[in-house]
Structures are given as C-alpha cells and as structure tokens.
Write a structure and sequence with these properties.
heterodimer; A: alpha+beta; 17 strands; 24% strand; globular; B: alpha+beta; 11-stranded mixed sheet; 6-stranded antiparallel sheet; 19 strands
Chain lengths: 380, 347
C-alpha cells in the first residue's frame, strides 16, 4: 500500500484513547509481512519484532542482539458520551480539545452501532449578537444523530466514544489535511521504516511499536508499559510538532515539508541525537532541530524513565493546526522520517552499543564527559 | 436522488450555474418553456392542462432559491494563504477546523486555527472572527496559490450528502436545495392553470433574484418553497424551536419580510386537515424568504412560504427529515389544484 493510501486509511479509522482496536488491526496487518513476530502489550499496544539480520562480531552478551524500539501512538483525541438528554448526546473531551473546533462538526458515535451525527450549531437566524460573540462552552454542545430519545437510548450508552467524521483532503504540493494525523502520520513512518529494514541488513533487534493512550493524561500509559515489556537499549519516539502557521511564532515552530525535527533537551539522550544527526547528514535526508526545556509532551518522556532508564530520541513530524480536524502535514516529512529511521536502525552496530555503555561509565566516573558532548551534533 | 445531487452541487450566491444546469436537466422535459434571465434566475412555465383549465384561472408562481451561503476569496497572502469574505449569514464560530472546496477546480482548503497547546485561557474564551481566519490550500507562496485559485473564486463547505438516523439526510445547502427538489417534483404534475416554476439566485444576499423575477412574471399568487429554521434541540429555558423536525411542513404566517396572505394560509391549513397531512405553523418573525420580495412585485402578489424544517441551517451540514419533505410535497400537491378558481377577492 502506498504511503498516501495508508495515511488516509489510518487517519479515517476511529480510535479514541483506550479504544484503539480498529487502528491496531490496520497496523498489525501492515507490519505483519515485515516482522518475525507480532504481539500485543497488556494494554493493547502493537509490538512487531524484526530480529537482527547481521551477524555480531563480538558476542559480548551471550547471543542476544541489542534492541532498538521505535514507536508512534495510534490513539486520537476524541469525545465520550456523558448523558443522553431529550434525544441528544452530551459529552466530554478525551484529550485536549479547544471546544471552539467542535461546533458544527460531523461525528461518528461508536455505540452499539456506529452512528453518524452532527455537533449541532443553532442557526444565526435565532442567535443574539451576545450569543454569537461567545464560544459555545463544551457543556452546551450536543450531538444529534437523528434518532428519537427511545431509539437513542437503545443504541448509545454513557461511556461510548465519539470521533470526528472527517475524510482526508488532498491539498497542493503533497500536503494533506485530516483528523488524527497526530499521530497516525508518524505511524505511517514507523511502518514504512520497518518495511525498508526488510531490504537491508541490521545488527540490532528492531521493535516497531504502535502505542495506545498517548493522548490520555500525562503518564503515557501505552508507551510506559510496552517499553517495559521490551526493555530496549535505545528508544525512538515519533510524534508531531507544530509547523509554522498563522499566529504561531517561528520560535516555537518548524517548517512544513523540510524534514523531521531531531529533538534536543533533557528528554533526549545526547548520543542518540548525535547518531540521528550523523545519519541524516550522511544520507542527505532533510531535517531540522527542535528543543524542549522539559517534557517533550510525547511518549519519549515516559520511555526515558522506564525500568533503569532508556537512552531516548525523538523525531518530530511537522504538523499545522494540531488537535483540530484539519491537521495538515506534508507527505515528504513522513518519507524523510521513515528513511532516517530505517537508516539509523540499520547503522546501529557494536560500537554504537559500546558508546552508550562507555558514556554511562564515563559519566559515573565524571571524566571526559564534556569532550564527548562537544562532538555532539548540535555543536558541530 | 435529486436532493443528493443538488445538495452536493456547489452554488454560492452569484455562482449558481452548476445548480441551474442540474435543474434544467431535471425539468426540461416537464415544462413548456424555460429561460434564464439576466441575473441568472431560471424561469420555467408549465401551461394549464387543457382538461379542467378555466378561462379565468389564475397564474400561480412556485419559487425556490438555488444559491447557498459560502465564502468568496478576496486576497492571497504572501505565504499562500487565502483571505475570504462570508457570502450570506454564517456564524463565525462554525468556520474553524472545516474543509472547503474552492473555485472551478474544487481545490481543497482548510481553515485551521492555533493549536490549543500554546493558548492562554483568555484566548479560548474569544470567538475567532472570520477576518482573522484564512484558508490553507497547501500553497508555498502567493504565486503558487494563484496558479490554482484566483481572487473572486467562491468556496463551499465540503460536506457530502448522507442519510443518517431515522429517515433523515445530512448535507450542505439543504437551504434551499430542498425547495428546489420539491419544485422539480411539483413540475412533474399537471395543473388547471398556468404555473411558473421559478428557481432564484442570490436569496442569501438579500432576496435579489426574486425581486426582478417577480416583476417579470406578473402572477396572481406566489408560494415559496424553503428549508426553514428548526431549532428544536433541548435547552435550559423553554424557548420556541421555530419549527420542529418530523412534525410536517411549516407554514409561514409572518416573518420580518412578509405578512403571509391569510387566504393562502387558510387554504393550506384546510387542505392539510382534510387530507390528514401533518403541518405546523412557523414561529412568527424569524428568518425571511423570497416571498418577502415576490409579494411586493408590481401591484402586489398574495404570497406565502411553505418550508421543510431543517436543523443547523447555514452551517457545514444541515439535517432534514425525508418524511417532512414528502409531507411538504403532499401538501403542495393537494393544495395547488384548489386554486383553479382563483382567490376570493379581499373585499
């Protein structure tokens, strides 16, 4: 399947945090031809294992190859039914929604059947100037599925999830707009990287993971638990970041279509970042730099502190209008991210594994740390 | 289904040609004459069936408007974003996070907004005005954008027609493509008088088409077929829903543009009662229709509006009941033949 078609299928699938089955089925189907094993974590994340194909020269650790985990999250922000009120549905948000994006949206209510509906907007004819001047608060919004109260109660229950009903739009210049590109565009890159790895040799075991529940809360339950299950030597998260758009300063945004951001900051392991930079440069893959003073707001934040700690990196895919239903991306950024991720994975070798270990030892002794840092990508 | 084709067709006020072509295809073999006037109104004439026609039979007008609310591209920014003006009454609050189709080539564009991640709470309490929004078509620059769109292109909501719920349909522009579809259906009947079927332009920007067409036609009675406000969602205070979905055609008594002719209202209500067709009276003084202009033509024309209750008018997707649609059709079919003798004089 082409990247474009996979992007469309994944975006249009429904999977609010905690209810990702429809998406995980697509992901498992797409990963299966390129994986040695497919499994699911206890919380529902999809884990594809592709074993190392290159023989290790130094079998220092029994016969085990080092493990690389790369991941993206498959859940999306959505809504949940809180009450059935005189024939309409009242709801809350699952994940961070600006209520202003919700008015007059088409939705799918995932009840006993999937019901198309509308978040109703009262017509301008009956609104006062005062009403038009204020956003409709979430509590006053309602969903109309065109059923009687009795029929509605038979088909929909409190706790059912609701997604925006939105087809992908093709814009100019290989750009696309749709819902749930956060983070399904990165899921496409993860699958594509796994596919590209079937064409090359690689010395590490590769775990391509599609995690659940990133959008729910700040503890990243999907990534936190599946990463513990795998306990990789290196973990790379792929998530979206703000692309330049009206009203957003370039200080906080990257360019659309010019490659993934390679993140820096306390969440990111310096050696991992440096290696990503080296690979991007040597393969001439467009890339940018992003920097976060604290949490990156991604699964990387959770994975870094799994078990005894995991060297973690982050590829940031540029995206406009985050958490709306017209999230906009450039297909090229998915291609660049997949190529970089596959090349990075294939280049991991014994010496990189030792680098990670050596640095740990050096840090413990407090020696030559600054010299190693100075050879890092950011300062080259 | 004609209503589906009409709803999906794109025709913002001033750009009704696509809709008009669809309608001409549908009616050309059902009417005796048709023509398009200088504003773009489609005027059709169906002559009285010879049997049953009376010498002093009236001339009756049925009208529906072809145009829909939408956007007009007025400027292209250096970075390729399109600035727009609203055509017709659209609540600014329904615009963000929607998809539009722009211009002849149906270029897709989206109205994005700042992600909530960087917003302060006070910002989220504000409505983003249309002037502060723009359409993103994925263009790199002004020149890039102008290679596919131009200033003056119209944009429509990208909503596709669908059946939902219990016998309802969802679509853009049901206001007033529902009226257009009803009128096409009514033109397949025979009548004992000359009947003009009028499909107007520019209703949404001030009932413009109806004004000139009414002057041209010189008729004895006028019915406007509309999709009207239906605001029947549950509310904390008990306020009138204007009309209610599923309760039959809504008959206008009075709105800001029209005092409906009492004889026509009485005829409609009597016909509905005798034929056991459900009907409702539209709450007075809300909205306005082409009847507001038609009844002022020349020396004046008795006029009334009969509407299909429609939720979420002027938003990306409206909702109406096919049962209401069919009952509106039944009511008009049963009422019109009763006009064969004309209206009784006012005095």
């Amino acid at each position: 399947m082409s990247l474009e078609n996979l992007l469309i299928e994944l975006s249009e699938a429904s999977g609010v945090s905690g209810h990702e089955d429809a998406v995980s089925r697509i992901v498992a189907r797409e990963m299966e031809p390129f994986a040695d094993e497919i499994s699911y974590s206890r919380l529902g994340s999809v884990i594809a294992l592709k074993r190392a194909t290159r023989t290790r020269r130094h079998k220092s650790r029994a016969s085990q190859s080092p493990k690389l985990l790369f991941e993206a999250h498959i859940d999306e922000i959505g809504l949940m039914v809180t009450a059935l009120d005189r024939g309409v549905i009242r709801f809350v948000a699952v994940g961070s929604f600006d209520p202003r994006v919700l008015l007059a949206q088409d939705v799918l209510v995932h009840g006993r059947e999937t019901l198309p509906g509308i978040i109703g907007a009262r017509p301008p004819h009956v609104l006062t100037a005062e009403e038009r001047g204020k956003p409709v608060p979430l509590n006053d919004l309602f969903i109309d599925v065109g059923l009687s109260d009795a029929r509605l109660r038979a088909l929909v229950s409190v706790g059912d999830t609701i997604t925006i009903d939105r087809r992908v739009s093709r814009l100019c210049n290989g750009r696309f707009a749709g819902k749930a590109f956060d983070d399904r565009c990165a899921v496409v890159a993860v699958i594509e990287a796994l596919k590209q790895l079937s064409q090359v040799e690689h010395g590490w075991d590769i775990y391509a993971v599609a995690n659940v529940q990133e959008e729910h809360g700040t503890f990243y339950p999907g990534a936190f638990t599946s990463t513990f299950q795998v306990r990789p030597d290196v973990a790379i998260a792929l998530d979206v970041t703000h692309a330049e758009q009206p009203g957003m300063s370039a200080v906080n945004a990257v360019a659309l279509g010019k490659g993934p951001g390679l993140a820096l900051g306390p969440n990111i392991h310096h050696t991992v970042h440096t290696k990503l930079m080296q690979v991007a440069r040597s393969r001439e893959i467009p890339h940018q730099i992003t920097a976060y003073a604290g949490s990156t707001g991604t699964d990387a934040w959770a994975m870094q502190v799994v078990s005894t700690g995991i060297p973690t990196g982050l590829l940031d895919l540029p995206l406009r209008y985050m958490h709306t239903s017209v999230e906009t991306i450039a297909l090229a950024d998915i291609e660049y991210s997949a190529r970089l991720l596959a090349a990075f994975s294939a280049e991991l070798d014994e010496s990189f594994y030792r680098d990670l270990q050596v640095e740990t030892k050096m840090v413990a002794r407090g020696a030559t740390v600054s010299r190693r840092r100075m050879t890092g990508g950011k300062h080259q | 289904m004609l209503l589906e084709k009409l709803s999906n067709a794109r025709g913002v006020s001033g750009d009704e040609a696509r809709v008009r072509e669809l309608i001409i295809d549908a009616i050309s073999d059902r009417v005796d004459e048709y023509r398009v006037d200088s504003l773009g109104n489609l005027i059709t004439l169906k002559r009285a069936a010879t049997r049953g026609a009376r010498r002093n039979a009236p001339t009756v007008l049925l009208a529906a408007h072809m145009d829909e609310v939408g956007l007009l591209i007025v400027h292209v920014e250096a970075d390729g974003r399109l600035r727009f003006s609203k055509v017709g009454g659209i609540d600014d609050r329904v615009l963000p996070s929607k998809v539009f189709h722009i211009g002849e080539n149906k270029i897709a564009g989206v109205i994005g907004m700042k992600p909530r991640h960087g917003l302060k709470a006070a910002e989220m309490d504000k409505v983003i005005e249309a002037d502060d929004l723009s359409l993103d078509i994925g263009a790199h620059s002004r020149e890039d954008a102008l290679s596919v769109v131009q200033i003056g292109d119209y944009a429509t909501f990208a909503t596709e027609f669908a059946r939902i719920g219990n016998g309802l349909v969802r679509g853009k522009a049901l206001d007033d493509r529902a009226g257009c579809a009803l009128l096409v259906d009514l033109l397949s009947e025979e009548y004992p008088f000359d009947l003009y079927g009028l499909f107007t332009v520019q209703e949404e920007v001030g009932l413009r088409g109806a004004r000139v067409a009414a002057f041209t036609l010189d008729v004895d009675a006028a019915f406007v077929l509309e999709a009207t406000v239906c605001d029947d969602s549950p509310k904390e205070k008990d306020v009138s829903p204007t009309t209610r979905l599923g309760y039959g055609p809504a008959i206008t008594l009075a709105d800001p543009t029209l005092m409906a002719d009492p004889r026509l209202v009485k005829l409609l209500i009597a016909t509905a009662s005798e034929n056991k067709i459900p009907y409702q009276v539209k709450q007075p003084m809300i909205g306005g229709t082409d009847a507001g202009r038609l009844h002022l033509a020349r020396e004046g024309v008795p006029g009334v509006a009969v509407s299909v209750p429609t939720r979420y008018l002027h938003s990306p997707a409206a909702l109406l009941s096919l049962r209401d649609y069919r009952n509106t059709l039944r009511l008009m079919r049963a009422t019109l033949p009763r006009l064969a003798r004309g209206l009784t004089p006012v005095i």
